[in-house]
Amino acid sequence: MGETRQPHLNGAYYGPSIPPPSKSYHRPGRGGSGCCCNPFSCCCSCIANCICTCICQIVFTILVIVGIIVLVCWLIFRPNTIKFYATDASLTEFNFNNNTLHYNLALNLTIRNPNKRIGIYYDRIEARAFYEGQRFDSVTLQPFYQGHKSTHSLKAEFKGQNVVLLGNKELSNYNNNKNSGMYDIEVILYLRTRLKFGFVKSTKVKPKIECDLKIPLHSNGTSSGTYESKRCDFDWR
């Protein structure tokens, strides 16, 4: 680079000339790293936070109110479990041959409602009979209403023949039952019920009642044993 001499400086060299500073212009809102505060975005954020807070408070309040109502109802009514008993059973035929089961079973059931302020509507009662896990018959019983602190009796009758597939283990159990004269039969009640609290009726509840029974065979006027009353298991499902 050539040297620049200025005559009026008496021949002295003071380096290259310094160019004047360039002017820069900035337009807000167009590119760059500048930041502009938008009052509308802040306002929308505050509104959204307020809405979320209000919704959470409303939901929490509803849950608390529902919990208090349930607690008060429980303290007032104090519901107790309904008790089911298989009080008596008569088995006059139970013969398995060529994958076909011939049977004649009558079962007496007792239902006890121990509650003082709760009534029960039994809208549907289906009784199913099983042997070695295989269902061999089902019957539908008469619907009824059971009042406070009352006992109701039902009778389920299973009679006929049906195809039942038993494996080697199940067939061995059948032979043992046949030799002893006591048969392991399971009866399950599938219910569709509603509870009545004063003038209020609940939605439908579908409990299941399981009765694991040992029933003696009565044949030709003689019995191979004595049937013992059995309390059934209650499952609200």
Automatic annotation (TrEMBL):
Membrane-spanning ranges: 58-77
Membrane topology: Single-pass membrane protein
UniProtKB keywords: Membrane, Transmembrane, Transmembrane helix
The keyword Membrane appears for this protein: yes
Pfam families: LEA_2
CC terms in the record's Gene Ontology section: membrane
Coiled coil (UniProt feature): none
Domain of life: Eukaryota
Cellular localization per UniProt: Membrane
Ranges of residues in domain Late embryogenesis abundant protein LEA-2 subgroup: 109-208
Official protein name in the record: NDR1/HIN1-like 2
Native species: Forsythia ovata
Lineage of source species: Eukaryota, Viridiplantae, Streptophyta, Embryophyta, Tracheophyta
